[in-house]
């Protein structure tokens, strides 16, 4: 579905990402792993059009694409849920779910508020999320409820790829379960998911593929069932597999 080839990003004399190539396959969940400073956020921002690569290319469905903004990425079916959630606190749930994709009628002259409400209701129903009201500002909601709104917005976009940056961080057990169930459901509907997480238990539950970065470089791109929990930790921290069989799998 999405391929990055030889991506490099420099900020002045600092190289955040160096020669990264990877594939995100259709209808699969890819976990993007790495310690702090590994380059995960920089890579995601290039995939989402926030950063332009210093060199390298991004391909969607076999075609090279050039993105100048998150709106360009959204038009290609790529949407992201960042850790800061990017919600408008003073606006209600309905408005936040339609942000960036507000429906209109009468030739674009009038906002279609009925459609906005239907979109919000459908997205939250799909997630099985329970909120006190769709008409209250998100500033009055708990962290888990705000996370639900942000993920519902991504689901409502109907895109090909949903990117989630630490979606279960700081959530309660019930809210974490909701997020993981959404990831399972997105995959079941043929949507690709790229998830950044430090919670390896969650990664091993939902991921099909692992992309592991260290120091801005790819140290492994493997199927999740080809590695153990301990081997993933070793790759994240040391950038080296434990044994020869895994080394061959990583190299492949």
Could you describe the 3D structure shown?
Keywords: ATP-binding, Nucleotide-binding. It comes from Rhizobium meliloti. This is ATP-binding cassette domain-containing protein. InterPro entries: AAA+_ATPase, ABC_carbohydrate_import_ATPase, ABC_transporter-like_ATP-bd, P-loop_NTPase. GO terms for molecular function: ATP binding; ATP hydrolysis activity. This protein is an alpha/beta fold. The chain has 2 domains: 2-77 and 162-251, 3-Layer(aba) Sandwich (Rossmann fold), CATH 3.40.50.300; 89-158, no CATH class. Helix content is 36%, strand content 26%. It contains 9 helices and 12 strands. A 6-stranded mixed beta sheet has the order 6-9-10-3-11-12, sandwiched between helices. Strand 1 and strand 2 form a beta hairpin. Helix 5 runs parallel beside helix 6. The protein is globular and about 55 Å long.
